[in-house]
Amino acid sequence: MTTTTYELDPVHSHLGFSVRHMMVSHQRGRFQGVTGTLTLDREDLTRSHVEVAIDTTTLDTHNTDRDNHLRSADFFDVANHPRMTFVSREVKVQPDGELRVTGDLTIRGTTHPVTLTAEALSAESKDPFGNLRIGTSATAKISRKDFGMVWNAVLETGGIALADDVKLTLDVQFVRK
φ and ψ at 152, to 5 degrees? Predict the structure, then answer.
């Protein structure tokens, strides 16, 4: 088994989320503080492993009041849980080359399995500074209530302020160590 270790490049990566708001549109946000390691086995991708840590205090939706509410105990509770993590447990390669990466996502001290649907990893590419890079994009959907984020408000016209389902989107680059 030959593996190569890569470090997640936070400058060239985007970890985003979106949730339906007021039952009319999706509001988007991202986390800027992210670190991670990919241990890649190109000969057998199913033996690869990824670990990612996200600084929840770096949440950004481009609205200070909303960001502060999302950082509060109603949602991420960053004062008590300044970090969330994802640790892969299984990688499956689909016939079309896509990957299904299942792992443990921990938010607010609660852990649940999540499966990311990822594009096939890119070929390794050398950047202008001589670093070897690979990348991929992935998506997943989680229930915010599964992680203790149950705050909501009933709308005067019926319905609720926030949907339960949260879409996760990741566009990540890794640099060979």
Answer: -165, 170
Residue 26 pLDDT exceeds 70? yes
Which one, of 48, 47, 52, lies nearest residue 37 by Cα? 52
Is residue 58 a contact partner of residue 31, using CB atoms and an 8 Å limit? yes
pLDDT at position 20 over 90: no
| Chain Cα centroid distance, residue 111 | 14
Q: What is the mean pLDDT of the chain?
A: 94
Residue range 79-102, pLDDT digits in tens: 999 999 999 999 999 999 999 999
- Find all residues with CB under 8 Å of 73, minimum gap 6, and list them: 79, 80
- pLDDT for res 48: 97
Please answer whether residues 149 and 69 qualify as being in contact, where contact means their C-beta atoms are separated by less than 8 angstroms: no
173, two tokens:
């680059």
**The token pair that represents 109 in the structure block:** 């001290």
Determine the residue type at 31: F
